[in-house]
Amino acid sequence: MKTETVGTATFETWDVDEVASALEKREIVLIDVRTPQEFMFEHIPGALLMPMSFFDAQALPGQSDKRIVFHCGSGVRSEKVARAAIEAGFDRIAHMGGGMAAWKAAQKPHIGTNMATGAPQRVD
Questions:
Q1: pLDDT tens digits, residue range 20-30?
Q2: Is 44 a catalytic residue?
Q3: pLDDT 10s digits, 28-62
Q4: Residues 6+ away with beta carbon under 8 Å from 7
Q5: Which residues form a coiled coil (predicted)?
Q6: CA dist., res. 94 & res. 13, Å (int)
Q7: Cβ(52)–Cβ(13) under 8 Å?
Q8: pLDDT tens digit string along 71-101?
Q9: Residue 112 and residue 124: Cα distance in Å, rounded?
Q10: In sequence order, what DSSP letters do the residues of the chain get, joined into one string?
């Protein structure tokens, strides 16, 4: 994990293994900031959807029990959203570096779309 101090806040960049481990242990809330269409096509099981275009920091859950980790397709949008959360007053926030592309490159399980039927299917 890489950390950066932004004012009085801590901005964290997690790698896919850290996110996968924390998600499995239910230690984080993983929030996907991609579009609903991107999410429908493929997503990480257990991730919640809050598209960047509708981002509202006041709607985020508190972090007393679980850390919030954002992710997107490549890590660009999730970093922007994480920094916006810090500007909104969150003092410790994280995003997944490399996004969904890095998740798939690491061969982590996700929900994809069966191109023959259009139905969702687990990809391990």
A1: 999 999 999 99
A2: no
A3: 999 999 999 999 999 999 999 999 999 999 998 87
A4: 86
A5: none
A6: 6
A7: no
A8: 999 999 999 999 999 999 998 899 999 999 9
A9: 10
A10: -EEEEETTEEEEEE-HHHHHHHHHTT-EEEEE-S-HHHHHHSB-TT-EE--GGG--GGGSPP-SSSEEEEE-SSSHHHHHHHHHHHHTT-SEEEEETTHHHHHHHTT--EEEE-TTT--EEEE-
Residue 119 included in any domain? no
Count how many domains the chain has: 1
Is residue 118 one of the residues assigned to a domain? no
Domain that holds residue 31: 2-111
The model carries a pTM of 0.91
In whole angstroms, give the CA distance from residue 102 to residue 120: 20
* From 30, 69, 72, 81, active-site residue: 72
> Structure tokens of 59?
């709607």
Whose structure tokens read 């997503």? 43
